[in-house]
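New to this. Look over this protein:
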Amino acid sequence: MLCERCGKEVYKNEVCNYCKKKLCFNCVKSSRRVTKTNRIVICKDCWGKITKRKQFKSEGRVEVKQEEGPSYRRY
């Protein structure tokens, strides 16, 4: 298989979740495991595009919601 970004021949490739290119490990900028079975990958080309980078960084985050009601503080 060939890397679609640099053209090197690779044994195993990764697929960028944003541009859908097949990449070698040198062209992968970052990867993150969102769930136990789901992994997202971003290539170096998409990392340079700010909108795709922000989407990658915000994906998979769990927001903690505070319960409404009285807050108790310890002093």
